[in-house]
Amino acid sequence: MFPQNSAPMLSDAARQASRTGLTIWFTGLSAAGKTTLNDAVRERLQAVGYAVEPLDGDVLRQNLWKDLGFSKQDRDENVRRIGFVAHLLSRNGIIVLVSAISPYRAARDEVRCRIGNFVEVYVNAPVDVCEQRDRKGLYRKARAGQLSGFTGVDDPYEPPLCPEIECHTDRETVAESADKIMRYLEARLSSAAASGCGE
Question: Among 17-21, 110-114, 133-137, which is the least confidently predicted range?
């Protein structure tokens, strides 16, 4: 189960179960580490032959739905659209890795219900740590009043109440958080294989 670099890998039973597809949704503040963790998990899954598709909320906004702004209604619609694409992919056997702030709990719960085979990963880092990491200077602009409605500054982030996985990226290394996610996937997918279905 563990290769030489000690990173958890998935068993043959878990691979069989994963053919039903799965959406892993990374949610958290800007600069919490969502994309970094997404990349780490993607590399591990692809290294052992899984069909994986990453979906980045910012990239999708810039390329597919430029019509959306940053009101609550538009942010909820952004999450719904990402969820729709993730559902299309996962129902065809793809492991979908979504990175999106997705600040509102109700919108995340809505896509969870739509997709079904859904894993919520709360990428948890305090806002002051996120500000220190912020290479784009977005928090600084928000504090200066140059950006309005910025999540974590003047717009709320509603953390998950019961995420399948919580990664404390201010205290864990990328490898430690990725290991935690891979261990969860092994347990979940192996259980689905043992029950004879993929959820």
Answer: 17-21
Active-site pick, 18, 30, 99, 102: 102
Note whether residue 113 is domain-resident: yes
- Count of domains for the chain: 1
How far from chain centre, in Å, is Cα 61? 16
Q: Answer whether 54's CB lies under 8 Å from 46's CB.
A: no
Beta strands in 125-185 (DSSP E): 165-168
Active site residue 102: yes
Tell me the residue range of the domain where 36 lies. 12-189
CA distance 164 to 188: 10
* Dist CA 92 CA 100 (whole Å): 22
- Estimate to the nearest angstrom the gap between the alpha carbon of 6 and the chain centroid: 23
The count of other CB atoms within 10 Å of the CB of residue 168 is 16
Two structure tokens written together for 9: 């890998």
Q: What's the one-letter identity of residue 193?
A: A
pLDDT tens digits, residue range 131-161? 999 988 999 999 999 988 899 999 999 999 9
Residue 156 within any structural domain of the chain: yes
Quick count: other Cβ atoms within 10 Å of Cβ 107? 21
CATH number of domain containing 142:
3.40.50.300
